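We close this part of the discussion by returning to an individual protein. The sequence in question and its structure tokens are set out directly beneath this paragraph:
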Amino acid sequence: MAQDPFGFDFSLSGSTSPAATDPARYIAPPFDARMLSDTEASLLVSRQPAPARLSITAARLLGACDRFRTIDEQVRRAISHLRVSSTQTGEITRTLRQLAERGLLLSQSDLLERLQDWNLSSHRPRSIETLFVRTRNRPLTLARLLESLATLNKPDDLRRCIALDDSDGDGGDPKTIEVIRDFRERLPLQLHHIARGQRRVILEHIAADSGADVTDLHWFIEGDADDEQPTYGASLNLALLLGAGETFAIMDDDASLAAFRLHETDTRHRFAATSSTRLEFPEPESELSAAFEPLTTSPVAEHARYLGCNGAEFAIQGKDHLDALFERVDPRLFFELATPTRIRITTNGTLGDPGTSGIQWLFTESSEHLAALCTDEQRYRHLVGQRRTARSPDSIQATTSFSLMTTTLTGIDNRDLLLPTQARGGNEDLLFGALVDWLHPGSLQAALPLMLFHERPEPRRWRGEDIDRPRSTNRGRFLTDQLHRLGAGLPAGGVESRIDLLRGWLNGLADSPADELRWRLQQDMLELRGETIERMRNRLAELKPPSWLEADFRRSLAAHARDHEEDRVRIDTMTQAVPRFARRYAAGLDSWCQAWCLASSQPVERLIRLQPHGAHS
């Protein structure tokens, strides 16, 4: 292994007289360092026009300042991380102060000021006027959702609720239609119903007026006719067209607008590299709402408060707690924030069914969250078997790493062009987030510390055999991972250039030799399983659970390490399916963009009341 060119000893004066305590916190901005000689380095610092020259000693100290800390804390970090004698405290302190004077160590106030400089154009939030509800043959849960909408203290600026009915048949589910008819007189807003037949008419009209190919639009909404996977993404893609040019919210019919908070919820603002959550387990057979604090404001209003904000506007809302606001900022996140930003997605937590297909994620949760499962085996079985959790972001977070599940309320800033996800198949929400981030670098997701009620009409339970089912990849997850790799290190560019790059990449993926694509799919599966195993092993070592819980940990670990025949079948199927999807998506991109632009120029009501082309109502 090559020797670290910065891995040599300090040669400081040994002074032990530190300066007066400074309460300000500092971080080093992202930089790239190269040696000029045995004693001097050149640093190319992010967002600075010219390199800076520093001693090797100062460069190494700067590299250790990877979080916001006071000067005294940075000194202790340097002594520990760089293995320097504590007798050199005074000299290290003076060097760090000199770096701060040169602008090579930035304070929290400096970053707040720079966020405002990087986000000169304001994207002030706009009200959420449309709520889309994805529904499919579940009239009872749809009625529960609409009841929660009717009982909101204030409907905020909502003007309409649109039920996107994905039930079989052109007219939709008759019982769903009856529920909507009953609620039309009760809701203080417009309530609309769009079934498959009407969405086909809408697409035909948009295609005719925009010049888009109607078969392309139909594919983005319906997917391949011979694809047997569920149409999870169909209604999300239709909402992107109908809500073009505005901010809107979307949720599933088995969720509700009844909102709650965990006790002692942290409502401070934080920038975060990834979203961080709190997890609790409701008591078995208890009323879900009994142990949690009801939210007194509308969840729609909470989403509207942040949707469309840029990074500076988010920071201003949290400036009274700067330590919390920047606590999780590291050099990589600093670099990602050093550009025009906007919150394009808002999400929240879930109370009830967690919405996940498997249980494996539970064994990767923090030891603090899993402590409740360690007291008694029977209680553990009851808590886990009920498949109910209270899961919420641990603060108001703005993150550059999209991780969303559009089951409960999700806010989407659709004022600029957004691209559709896959119409069929799982992880459609992850792929949508990756496409937002791809098309608009600098996009943020705001995760809000509130939970929306979520319970399916037939409550699901986890069984023992679920532990033996490992996590697996699928087309949505694979494409999401590949997009992240593709985007790493690319310059931002413009929307058109990024669409061209996406189209070229998809066509290249479609033309890949089968053995190369199979290798990539296997690599993706191996990475997913390997990361899961590593997190489980770490959690097992930290938690030191009782024997009965340890046995379940080890069962899940064994399942993730085992070869499964199902994996080979899945990989072979995806090797055939991914090229077809990639080529078809690339071919339809121009049509999607034409249709979105046309839809963005028309009011929602005009789009949803269309008759066949030439016979407008």
Q: What stands out?
A: Residues 25-104 form a domain with the Outer Surface Protein A; domain 3 fold (CATH 3.90.930.60). The CA atoms of residues 124 and 309 lie 5 Å apart. The chain has two domains: 25-104, 130-488+501-608. Residues 565-600 form the longest helix (36 residues).
